[in-house]
Amino acid sequence: MKIGILGAGNVGGTLGQGWARRGHEILFGVRDPQSPKTRDLIAQCGDKARAGSAAEAATCEVVVNALPFAAGKEALEALNLKGKVLLDCANPLKSDLSGLEIGPNTSAGEMAADWAKGAKVVKIFISTGYNNMANPDYGGNPLTMFYCGDDPAAKGIAADLARDLGFTPVDAGPLTNARLLEPLAMLWIWLAIRGGMQREFGFRLVTR
Amino acid sequence: MKIGILGAGNVGGTLGQGWARRGHEILFGVRDPQSPKTRDLIAQCGDKARAGSAAEAATCEVVVNALPFAAGKEALEALNLKGKVLLDCANPLKSDLSGLEIGPNTSAGEMAADWAKGAKVVKIFISTGYNNMANPDYGGNPLTMFYCGDDPAAKGIAADLARDLGFTPVDAGPLTNARLLEPLAMLWIWLAIRGGMQREFGFRLVTR
User: Fold this and answer.
1) Who contacts A61 (Cβ-Cβ below 8 Å, separation ≥6)?
2) Contact check, Cβ <8 Å, B126/A202
Protein backbone atom coordinates (compact mmCIF):
# COMPACT_ATOMS: atom_id res chain seq x y z
CA MET A 1 0.00 0.00 0.00
CA LYS A 2 1.22 3.54 -0.74
CA ILE A 3 1.15 5.55 2.45
CA GLY A 4 1.78 9.28 2.63
CA ILE A 5 2.83 10.55 6.05
CA LEU A 6 2.49 14.23 6.89
CA GLY A 7 5.25 14.93 9.37
CA ALA A 8 8.33 12.89 10.15
CA GLY A 9 8.59 13.32 13.90
CA ASN A 10 8.47 10.54 16.49
CA VAL A 11 5.05 9.24 15.54
CA GLY A 12 5.23 9.69 11.77
CA GLY A 13 8.79 8.39 11.63
CA THR A 14 8.04 5.33 13.73
CA LEU A 15 4.90 4.43 11.78
CA GLY A 16 6.71 4.87 8.47
CA GLN A 17 9.62 2.67 9.52
CA GLY A 18 7.29 -0.02 10.81
CA TRP A 19 5.24 -0.11 7.63
CA ALA A 20 8.27 0.10 5.33
CA ARG A 21 9.70 -2.98 7.05
CA ARG A 22 6.46 -4.79 6.21
CA GLY A 23 6.63 -3.90 2.54
CA HIS A 24 4.51 -0.77 2.31
CA GLU A 25 5.69 2.19 0.20
CA ILE A 26 6.16 5.29 2.31
CA LEU A 27 6.25 8.91 1.22
CA PHE A 28 7.04 11.35 3.99
CA GLY A 29 5.58 14.77 3.28
CA VAL A 30 7.86 17.28 4.96
CA ARG A 31 8.93 20.89 4.70
CA ASP A 32 12.53 20.04 3.76
CA PRO A 33 12.96 16.58 2.19
CA GLN A 34 16.75 17.02 2.20
CA SER A 35 17.18 17.78 5.89
CA PRO A 36 19.70 15.57 7.71
CA LYS A 37 16.99 14.26 10.04
CA THR A 38 14.74 13.25 7.16
CA ARG A 39 17.63 11.65 5.26
CA ASP A 40 18.52 9.61 8.35
CA LEU A 41 14.93 8.48 8.67
CA ILE A 42 14.72 7.47 5.00
CA ALA A 43 17.96 5.50 5.35
CA GLN A 44 16.48 3.59 8.29
CA CYS A 45 13.39 2.68 6.29
CA GLY A 46 15.33 0.71 3.66
CA ASP A 47 14.45 1.20 0.00
CA LYS A 48 10.73 1.47 0.58
CA ALA A 49 10.60 5.12 1.64
CA ARG A 50 11.29 8.55 0.25
CA ALA A 51 10.58 12.14 1.19
CA GLY A 52 8.71 14.80 -0.73
CA SER A 53 6.24 17.61 -0.24
CA ALA A 54 3.01 17.38 1.71
CA ALA A 55 1.15 17.65 -1.61
CA GLU A 56 3.01 14.59 -2.93
CA ALA A 57 2.26 12.65 0.23
CA ALA A 58 -1.40 13.56 -0.19
CA THR A 59 -1.53 11.71 -3.52
CA CYS A 60 -1.04 8.32 -1.78
CA GLU A 61 -4.07 6.11 -1.21
CA VAL A 62 -3.68 6.36 2.55
CA VAL A 63 -2.57 9.61 4.17
CA VAL A 64 -1.43 9.86 7.78
CA ASN A 65 -1.64 13.14 9.68
CA ALA A 66 1.28 12.96 12.09
CA LEU A 67 1.69 16.72 12.41
CA PRO A 68 1.40 18.57 15.70
CA PHE A 69 -2.24 19.52 16.33
CA ALA A 70 -1.46 23.21 15.98
CA ALA A 71 -0.13 22.66 12.44
CA GLY A 72 -3.05 20.55 11.26
CA LYS A 73 -5.56 23.11 10.13
CA GLU A 74 -3.29 24.97 7.75
CA ALA A 75 -1.74 21.78 6.36
CA LEU A 76 -4.95 19.83 5.83
CA GLU A 77 -6.91 22.71 4.36
CA ALA A 78 -4.15 23.29 1.79
CA LEU A 79 -4.28 19.70 0.48
CA ASN A 80 -6.74 17.90 -1.77
CA LEU A 81 -7.74 14.86 0.28
CA LYS A 82 -11.09 14.17 -1.31
CA GLY A 83 -11.89 10.46 -1.09
CA LYS A 84 -8.63 9.65 0.68
CA VAL A 85 -8.30 7.52 3.76
CA LEU A 86 -6.87 9.93 6.31
CA LEU A 87 -5.46 8.46 9.51
CA ASP A 88 -5.43 11.27 12.02
CA CYS A 89 -2.85 10.91 14.79
CA ALA A 90 -3.05 14.43 16.18
CA ASN A 91 -3.30 14.91 19.92
CA PRO A 92 -4.83 18.24 20.89
CA LEU A 93 -2.49 18.72 23.85
CA LYS A 94 -1.82 21.82 25.85
CA SER A 95 1.76 22.89 25.30
CA ASP A 96 2.70 22.05 28.91
CA LEU A 97 1.18 18.54 28.49
CA SER A 98 -1.08 19.18 31.47
CA GLY A 99 -4.23 18.32 29.57
CA LEU A 100 -6.20 18.60 26.36
CA GLU A 101 -6.47 21.87 24.50
CA ILE A 102 -10.05 21.21 23.41
CA GLY A 103 -11.23 18.96 26.23
CA PRO A 104 -13.85 19.95 28.77
CA ASN A 105 -12.94 22.34 31.52
CA THR A 106 -14.58 20.28 34.22
CA SER A 107 -15.61 16.73 35.15
CA ALA A 108 -18.16 14.99 37.33
CA GLY A 109 -15.34 14.39 39.82
CA GLU A 110 -14.54 18.07 40.13
CA MET A 111 -18.24 18.88 40.38
CA ALA A 112 -18.59 16.32 43.20
CA ALA A 113 -15.75 18.07 45.03
CA ASP A 114 -17.61 21.33 44.60
CA TRP A 115 -20.88 19.87 45.88
CA ALA A 116 -19.38 17.87 48.77
CA LYS A 117 -17.68 20.79 50.48
CA GLY A 118 -14.54 19.81 52.31
CA ALA A 119 -14.56 16.16 51.21
CA LYS A 120 -11.39 14.52 49.93
CA VAL A 121 -12.67 13.32 46.59
CA VAL A 122 -11.11 10.43 44.70
CA LYS A 123 -12.54 9.54 41.30
CA ILE A 124 -12.51 5.76 41.02
CA PHE A 125 -14.58 2.70 40.06
CA ILE A 126 -15.82 4.11 36.79
CA SER A 127 -13.62 2.76 34.02
CA THR A 128 -15.10 -0.74 34.00
CA GLY A 129 -18.42 -2.50 34.51
CA TYR A 130 -19.90 -3.64 37.82
CA ASN A 131 -19.43 -7.24 36.65
CA ASN A 132 -15.69 -6.58 36.66
CA MET A 133 -15.90 -4.96 40.07
CA ALA A 134 -17.37 -8.27 41.26
CA ASN A 135 -14.53 -10.17 39.60
CA PRO A 136 -11.62 -8.27 38.05
CA ASP A 137 -9.61 -11.43 37.43
CA TYR A 138 -8.92 -12.14 33.77
CA GLY A 139 -6.98 -15.32 33.26
CA GLY A 140 -5.10 -15.00 36.51
CA ASN A 141 -4.31 -11.33 35.97
CA PRO A 142 -6.26 -8.42 37.43
CA LEU A 143 -7.76 -5.52 35.52
CA THR A 144 -6.39 -2.05 36.21
CA MET A 145 -8.36 0.45 38.27
CA PHE A 146 -7.35 4.02 37.51
CA TYR A 147 -8.06 6.66 40.12
CA CYS A 148 -7.33 10.35 40.59
CA GLY A 149 -7.63 12.89 43.34
CA ASP A 150 -5.81 15.62 45.18
CA ASP A 151 -5.44 14.16 48.69
CA PRO A 152 -2.64 11.58 48.97
CA ALA A 153 -4.06 9.83 52.05
CA ALA A 154 -7.52 9.57 50.53
CA LYS A 155 -5.97 8.19 47.34
CA GLY A 156 -4.11 5.59 49.37
CA ILE A 157 -7.37 4.43 50.93
CA ALA A 158 -9.06 4.31 47.52
CA ALA A 159 -6.18 2.26 46.12
CA ASP A 160 -6.38 -0.19 49.04
CA LEU A 161 -10.11 -0.61 48.52
CA ALA A 162 -9.56 -1.30 44.81
CA ARG A 163 -6.90 -3.85 45.73
CA ASP A 164 -9.33 -5.47 48.17
CA LEU A 165 -11.62 -6.20 45.21
CA GLY A 166 -8.78 -7.68 43.21
CA PHE A 167 -7.83 -4.75 40.98
CA THR A 168 -4.38 -3.39 40.32
CA PRO A 169 -4.80 0.28 41.25
CA VAL A 170 -2.99 2.89 39.14
CA ASP A 171 -2.61 6.49 40.30
CA ALA A 172 -3.77 8.68 37.43
CA GLY A 173 -2.93 12.01 39.00
CA PRO A 174 -4.92 14.98 40.26
CA LEU A 175 -8.69 15.25 40.40
CA THR A 176 -8.70 17.28 37.19
CA ASN A 177 -7.67 14.05 35.45
CA ALA A 178 -11.24 12.86 35.99
CA ARG A 179 -11.54 14.66 32.63
CA LEU A 180 -9.51 11.75 31.24
CA LEU A 181 -10.95 8.90 33.31
CA GLU A 182 -14.59 9.76 32.67
CA PRO A 183 -14.14 9.45 28.89
CA LEU A 184 -12.36 6.12 29.51
CA ALA A 185 -15.45 4.98 31.41
CA MET A 186 -17.58 6.14 28.49
CA LEU A 187 -15.34 4.15 26.13
CA TRP A 188 -15.99 0.99 28.17
CA ILE A 189 -19.72 1.66 28.12
CA TRP A 190 -19.71 2.41 24.40
CA LEU A 191 -17.82 -0.80 23.58
CA ALA A 192 -20.07 -2.86 25.85
CA ILE A 193 -23.40 -1.57 24.67
CA ARG A 194 -23.19 0.08 21.27
CA GLY A 195 -20.04 -1.70 20.19
CA GLY A 196 -21.59 -5.08 20.99
CA MET A 197 -18.73 -6.38 23.14
CA GLN A 198 -21.07 -7.20 26.04
CA ARG A 199 -19.59 -6.85 29.54
CA GLU A 200 -16.85 -9.46 29.90
CA PHE A 201 -13.88 -7.30 28.98
CA GLY A 202 -11.81 -4.62 30.64
CA PHE A 203 -8.71 -2.48 30.46
CA ARG A 204 -5.28 -3.39 31.73
CA LEU A 205 -2.18 -1.28 31.91
CA VAL A 206 0.77 -3.48 31.02
CA THR A 207 4.49 -2.85 31.41
CA ARG A 208 7.43 -4.55 29.73
CA MET B 1 -13.03 0.05 57.53
CA LYS B 2 -16.51 1.58 57.77
CA ILE B 3 -17.71 2.40 54.30
CA GLY B 4 -20.88 4.31 53.51
CA ILE B 5 -22.25 3.79 50.03
CA LEU B 6 -24.69 6.28 48.56
CA GLY B 7 -26.88 4.27 46.19
CA ALA B 8 -27.35 0.52 46.01
CA GLY B 9 -27.57 -0.05 42.28
CA ASN B 10 -25.24 -2.21 40.20
CA VAL B 11 -22.06 -0.34 41.08
CA GLY B 12 -22.80 0.47 44.72
CA GLY B 13 -24.22 -3.00 45.36
CA THR B 14 -21.29 -4.79 43.78
CA LEU B 15 -18.69 -2.71 45.60
CA GLY B 16 -20.48 -3.21 48.91
CA GLN B 17 -20.71 -6.96 48.49
CA GLY B 18 -17.05 -7.20 47.50
CA TRP B 19 -15.85 -5.19 50.47
CA ALA B 20 -18.21 -6.91 52.93
CA ARG B 21 -16.75 -10.24 51.89
CA ARG B 22 -13.32 -8.89 52.75
CA GLY B 23 -14.38 -7.82 56.21
CA HIS B 24 -15.28 -4.16 55.77
CA GLU B 25 -18.41 -2.77 57.43
CA ILE B 26 -20.86 -1.47 54.86
CA LEU B 27 -23.69 1.01 55.33
CA PHE B 28 -25.81 1.53 52.23
CA GLY B 29 -27.43 4.97 52.23
CA VAL B 30 -30.69 4.62 50.34
CA ARG B 31 -34.09 6.24 50.08
CA ASP B 32 -35.92 3.16 51.42
CA PRO B 33 -33.76 0.85 53.59
CA GLN B 34 -36.62 -1.67 53.80
CA SER B 35 -37.19 -2.13 50.06
CA PRO B 36 -37.07 -5.76 48.86
CA LYS B 37 -34.13 -5.00 46.56
CA THR B 38 -32.12 -3.49 49.39
CA ARG B 39 -32.98 -6.34 51.76
CA ASP B 40 -31.84 -8.84 49.12
CA LEU B 41 -28.59 -6.98 48.75
CA ILE B 42 -27.98 -6.84 52.49
CA ALA B 43 -28.66 -10.59 52.75
CA GLN B 44 -26.04 -11.23 50.08
CA CYS B 45 -23.45 -9.18 51.97
CA GLY B 46 -23.47 -11.45 55.01
CA ASP B 47 -23.51 -9.86 58.46
CA LYS B 48 -21.19 -7.02 57.55
CA ALA B 49 -23.75 -4.76 55.89
CA ARG B 50 -26.87 -2.80 56.74
CA ALA B 51 -28.98 -0.11 55.14
CA GLY B 52 -29.84 3.33 56.40
CA SER B 53 -30.25 6.90 55.27
CA ALA B 54 -27.78 8.83 53.15
CA ALA B 55 -26.99 10.94 56.20
CA GLU B 56 -26.08 7.81 58.18
CA ALA B 57 -23.88 6.56 55.34
CA ALA B 58 -22.17 9.93 55.31
CA THR B 59 -20.95 9.40 58.90
CA CYS B 60 -18.65 6.55 57.80
CA GLU B 61 -14.94 7.25 57.41
CA VAL B 62 -15.10 6.48 53.68
CA VAL B 63 -18.12 7.50 51.62
CA VAL B 64 -18.77 6.19 48.12
CA ASN B 65 -20.93 8.15 45.69
CA ALA B 66 -22.55 5.47 43.56
CA LEU B 67 -25.59 7.56 42.64
CA PRO B 68 -26.53 8.41 39.08
CA PHE B 69 -24.77 11.61 38.02
CA ALA B 70 -28.07 13.50 37.79
CA ALA B 71 -28.80 12.76 41.46
CA GLY B 72 -25.36 13.75 42.75
CA LYS B 73 -25.67 17.47 43.23
CA GLU B 74 -28.76 17.40 45.45
CA ALA B 75 -27.52 14.41 47.46
CA LEU B 76 -23.98 15.62 48.06
CA GLU B 77 -24.92 19.20 48.86
CA ALA B 78 -27.37 17.95 51.50
CA LEU B 79 -24.73 15.94 53.39
CA ASN B 80 -21.94 16.98 55.73
CA LEU B 81 -18.86 15.40 54.15
CA LYS B 82 -16.23 17.70 55.56
CA GLY B 83 -12.94 15.84 55.93
CA LYS B 84 -14.40 12.60 54.59
CA VAL B 85 -12.79 10.45 51.95
CA LEU B 86 -15.34 10.52 49.13
CA LEU B 87 -14.93 7.97 46.35
CA ASP B 88 -16.85 9.36 43.41
CA CYS B 89 -18.08 6.73 40.95
CA ALA B 90 -20.45 8.92 38.96
CA ASN B 91 -20.36 8.78 35.18
CA PRO B 92 -21.73 11.92 33.56
CA LEU B 93 -23.42 10.00 30.74
CA LYS B 94 -26.02 11.18 28.30
CA SER B 95 -29.24 9.31 28.93
CA ASP B 96 -28.98 7.46 25.61
CA LEU B 97 -25.41 6.38 26.50
CA SER B 98 -24.14 7.97 23.30
CA GLY B 99 -21.54 10.07 25.05
CA LEU B 100 -20.68 12.25 28.00
CA GLU B 101 -23.06 14.89 29.25
CA ILE B 102 -20.28 17.30 30.18
CA GLY B 103 -17.60 16.25 27.70
CA PRO B 104 -16.38 18.40 24.84
CA ASN B 105 -18.58 18.81 21.80
CA THR B 106 -15.74 18.21 19.37
CA SER B 107 -12.36 16.52 18.99
CA ALA B 108 -9.22 16.92 16.94
CA GLY B 109 -10.45 14.01 14.81
CA GLU B 110 -13.69 15.76 13.94
CA MET B 111 -11.80 18.98 13.28
CA ALA B 112 -9.46 17.12 10.92
CA ALA B 113 -12.51 15.82 9.03
CA ASP B 114 -13.72 19.39 8.76
CA TRP B 115 -10.36 20.65 7.51
CA ALA B 116 -9.65 17.76 5.10
CA LYS B 117 -12.80 18.11 3.06
CA GLY B 118 -14.06 14.81 1.67
CA ALA B 119 -11.42 12.66 3.36
CA LYS B 120 -12.42 9.46 5.16
CA VAL B 121 -10.93 10.19 8.54
CA VAL B 122 -9.97 7.48 11.01
CA LYS B 123 -8.62 8.55 14.39
CA ILE B 124 -5.85 6.12 15.31
CA PHE B 125 -2.27 5.84 16.63
CA ILE B 126 -2.76 8.23 19.52
CA SER B 127 -3.42 6.18 22.64
CA THR B 128 0.15 5.02 23.12
CA GLY B 129 3.71 6.26 22.65
CA TYR B 130 5.79 6.05 19.51
CA ASN B 131 8.06 3.56 21.29
CA ASN B 132 5.08 1.22 21.46
CA MET B 133 4.28 1.84 17.81
CA ALA B 134 7.81 0.59 17.08
CA ASN B 135 7.20 -2.46 19.27
CA PRO B 136 3.74 -3.14 20.69
CA ASP B 137 4.69 -6.57 21.98
CA TYR B 138 4.48 -6.94 25.75
CA GLY B 139 5.51 -10.35 26.94
CA GLY B 140 4.28 -12.09 23.82
CA ASN B 141 0.97 -10.21 23.81
CA PRO B 142 0.24 -7.11 21.74
CA LEU B 143 -1.06 -3.80 23.01
CA THR B 144 -4.49 -2.69 21.85
CA MET B 145 -4.87 0.05 19.24
CA PHE B 146 -8.25 1.76 19.47
CA TYR B 147 -9.53 3.58 16.39
CA CYS B 148 -12.72 5.32 15.37
CA GLY B 149 -14.21 6.73 12.21
CA ASP B 150 -17.31 6.83 10.06
CA ASP B 151 -16.20 5.01 6.90
CA PRO B 152 -16.12 1.21 7.29
CA ALA B 153 -13.65 0.61 4.44
CA ALA B 154 -11.26 3.27 5.72
CA LYS B 155 -11.52 1.77 9.20
CA GLY B 156 -10.67 -1.65 7.78
CA ILE B 157 -7.50 -0.23 6.21
CA ALA B 158 -6.58 1.51 9.45
CA ALA B 159 -7.07 -1.72 11.39
CA ASP B 160 -4.89 -3.65 8.93
CA LEU B 161 -2.14 -1.06 9.23
CA ALA B 162 -2.28 -1.30 13.02
CA ARG B 163 -2.08 -5.08 12.76
CA ASP B 164 0.93 -4.73 10.45
CA LEU B 165 2.75 -3.00 13.30
CA GLY B 166 1.82 -5.74 15.74
CA PHE B 167 -1.16 -4.16 17.52
CA THR B 168 -4.53 -5.74 18.18
CA PRO B 169 -6.90 -3.21 16.61
CA VAL B 170 -10.20 -2.49 18.38
CA ASP B 171 -13.04 -0.63 16.66
CA ALA B 172 -14.10 2.14 19.02
CA GLY B 173 -17.02 3.42 16.97
CA PRO B 174 -17.81 6.61 15.07
CA LEU B 175 -15.48 9.55 14.62
CA THR B 176 -17.23 11.42 17.43
CA ASN B 177 -15.65 8.85 19.75
CA ALA B 178 -12.36 10.64 19.15
CA ARG B 179 -13.74 12.61 22.12
CA LEU B 180 -13.03 9.44 24.15
CA LEU B 181 -9.80 8.31 22.50
CA GLU B 182 -8.06 11.67 22.70
CA PRO B 183 -8.43 11.77 26.51
CA LEU B 184 -7.10 8.19 26.58
CA ALA B 185 -4.06 9.43 24.67
CA MET B 186 -3.71 12.24 27.18
CA LEU B 187 -3.90 9.70 30.01
CA TRP B 188 -0.98 7.78 28.49
CA ILE B 189 1.01 10.99 28.14
CA TRP B 190 0.17 12.08 31.67
CA LEU B 191 1.21 8.75 33.17
CA ALA B 192 4.42 8.69 31.11
CA ILE B 193 5.60 12.20 31.78
CA ARG B 194 3.99 13.69 34.88
CA GLY B 195 3.12 10.37 36.48
CA GLY B 196 6.71 9.20 36.16
CA MET B 197 5.94 5.86 34.48
CA GLN B 198 8.33 6.58 31.60
CA ARG B 199 7.36 5.14 28.21
CA GLU B 200 7.48 1.34 28.50
CA PHE B 201 3.83 0.68 29.25
CA GLY B 202 0.60 0.61 27.35
CA PHE B 203 -3.10 -0.26 27.38
CA ARG B 204 -4.59 -3.61 26.55
CA LEU B 205 -8.22 -4.57 26.26
CA VAL B 206 -8.62 -8.05 27.73
CA THR B 207 -11.54 -10.46 27.53
CA ARG B 208 -12.38 -13.47 29.68
Assistant:
1) A1, A2, A3, A84, A85
2) no
